[in-house]
Specification:
Helix content: 25-40%
Largest sheet: none
Oligomer: single chain
Distance between the termini: 49 Å
Number of strands: 0
Number of helices: 2
Shape: elongated
Strand content: under 5%
Length: 52
């Protein structure tokens, strides 16, 4: 377990949290799925970019 701060000040204690890599999702969120089909398709097209 990481040690508490104690009397050593800020240098010693809990290690800093590392920012994990987030995978880019290609699907729609639950909120977006409730939108009209035409809007959903437009969002997907925008996510895919010009090549798709």
């Amino acid at each position: 377990m990481p040690a508490g701060k104690g009397t050593y000040g800020k240098k010693r204690g809990r290690p800093a949290k590392k920012g994990g890599k987030k995978k880019k999702s290609m699907g729609l969120t639950a909120k977006q799925k409730k939108l009209p089909m035409a809007l959903q398709k437009a969002i997907m097209k925008k996510k895919r970019g010009k090549r798709g």
